[in-house]
Amino acid sequence: MKTIFLDRDGVITVEGGGYVASPADIRYLPGALGSIARLNRAGWRVLIFTNQSGVGRGFITAQGLQVVHNRLCQDAQKAGAEILAVYSCPHKPGDNCSCRKPLPGMLLQAAEEHSLDLRTAWAAGDTPRDIAAAAAVGTRTALLLSGHTRAYEVATFGESPPTIVCADLPSLVDYLITTHS
Ligand SMILES: [Mg+2]
Ligand SMILES: [Zn+2]
């Protein structure tokens, strides 16, 4: 079964510069939930991997983040989409955890818990950190220009350039469904 990891902010939801502190703050990017439903129908498992240092910084509790993610999964279901699991890193930079992207800890944990093959999986994100985390474990990567990164510059990505660059999640899904089914 095909697998894709999606970053949250800038991929599914609007990267607004502030933390999403409650379900009322969630703003979806146009077509994002529908794109997940299209992936599911084409046989893809969809997981989320997201840095949420707002927890470590005290802007939201771990429980509050869980409430936000429960709502996100419910909203996805209403759009006919299934999110298999949500992995989030609650730590701050400097906490020396192994899960905060650009480290691949969340992907490794997901691979173990869901018996996934990371080398045939894809990951999509809007920052060099997302791309580096996935590249570190041999996962193919899509940089989406719908969040932090508005234009692709090779130099920013150093040794881990994305496999492909797409405008947003709907365009990536067009590509994956055309080329990987
Ligand atoms: Mg992001
Ligand atoms: Zn962490």
Tell me what you see in this structure:
The protein has 5 helices and 6 strands. By secondary structure, the protein is an alpha/beta fold. It has a single domain, classed as HAD superfamily/HAD-like (Rossmann fold), CATH 3.40.50. The mean pLDDT is 96. Zinc ion binds next to loops.
List keywords for this structure.
17% strand, alpha/beta, 181 residues, 6-stranded parallel β-sheet, Rossmann fold, binds magnesium ion, binds zinc ion
Describe the secondary structure blueprint for this structure:
Layout: E1 2-6, H1 32-41, E2 44-51, H2 62-78, E3 85-89, H3 105-114, E4 122-125, H4 128-135, E5 140-144, E6 164-166, H5 169-179
Parallel strand pairs: 1-2, 1-4, 2-3, 4-5, 5-6
Strand percentage: 15-25%
Calculate the terminal CA-CA distance, rounded to whole Å: 11 Å
Taking Cα atoms only, what radius of gyration do you get, to the nearest Å? Answer: 15 Å
Bound molecules: magnesium ion, zinc ion
- CATH H-level homologous superfamily name: HAD superfamily/HAD-like
Low-confidence stretches: none
Q: Please tally the helical runs, counting DSSP H or I stretches of 4 or more residues.
A: 5
Sequence of secondary-structure elements: EHEHEHEHEEH
**Taking all residues together, what is the mean pLDDT?**
96
Number of domains: 1
CATH class: Alpha Beta
CATH architecture: 3-Layer(aba) Sandwich
Shape: globular
In helices, the fraction of residues equals 25-40%
Q: Note the main sheet.
A: 6 strands, parallel
How many beta strands in the DSSP annotation? 6
